[in-house]
Amino acid sequence: MSWISEKAHSELQRVRDAQSKQIYPYFRPFESGGLHTTIAGKPIVNFSSNDYLGLTNHPKVKEAAKAAVDQFSCGLSSSRVQATATSHVELEERLAKWYGFDKSLIFTTGYQAMVGTIMSLADKDTTVVLDNLSHACILDGTFLAAGTPMRAPEVRFFNHNSAKALDRVLRKRDRKNALVLIEGIYSLDGDEANIQEFLEVCARHEDVAIVCDDAHGTGTLGKGGRGIIEKYGLEGQIPVVISTFSKTFGGIGGILLGDSDVVDFIKHTARSFLFSASLPVPIVAAASAILDMLETDGEAMVQELHEKSAYMRKGLVDIGFDLGDSNTHIMPIMVRDETKAMFTHVALLENGVLMVPIMYPAVKEGHERLRLNVTRGHSYEDIDQALDLLKKFAHSFSLVA
To answer: Which neighbouring-strand residues pair with 180?
Structure first.
């Protein structure tokens, strides 16, 4: 046995323990897609999905993807440098217009969009400043940039969502330029960025630019679902925004938004863009079909999501659950105990409801929670089913005080 196998065996002990107790909660295979699926032949309502407007399985989306398969099959067999379809360009132009930016660029994943953007913009003259609860794509992009010979930026963290801490870091930075990385909504805690306060802080310092990952704000924030910038009327104040197709847009892929020169610069320098295969055209077609619906009915769909979120939030609060700092449709049920989180997940799943537990190292020990995302695609009957079960288990598993 090589040291690689020995290392893997040792590190997997925690996983094997959970599997032996039949409470291992991850990689359960779905037998159909969507918010209403089946696992091992059993109907399941999925409350851990990011399909926030419930459009992934819309008939128009499926038809658009099927037509694209007939024209392009499932891939273009190369990177965008030599495998760009007219569909890519058309959707990029539409996205830029819809979001209110000069230009956009489609990456194969949202993860790659963030990693590539950071690595393109951050250099030896830059201090990268990031929230200490940043998503893995922000962390990895930062660490890759920091490890690049001759270009390595300075890296500084600030306390989660704290404008005061951000100000302190910007005052003490060692490099001329600062790249501040934030998220519109933090996906594990469900809280919005204090973006207006951050802008005020950044305005007090020279040579500071903000990059906002608004993956969870697209389709959920702002009157028309354009995200946190639309919600707070911040058009023109955030130079770069990253979003994704893997939530509201029902597929996979990354979106870069910015002015023309910035987008073109990243387009020609981001290794995660230049050396990755093109996003398959059927996914582009599906996203285009969803954009059609957002352009015509976005306001009504976002309003319905908010109404259902408010209904679920009231039910959870009435039971007595701790939702942490959440103020959005993402409502973590703070269990704060790994064993309780896993057993509650199993009990819910046995009764037809999926809420995946989030545990260390994804969150700090003592911050274990169930992932609960409300979507427009959930019915009120779905929500009531989940609330009834949660009320039952809240007492039997001692989840509330």
So the answer is: 129, 210
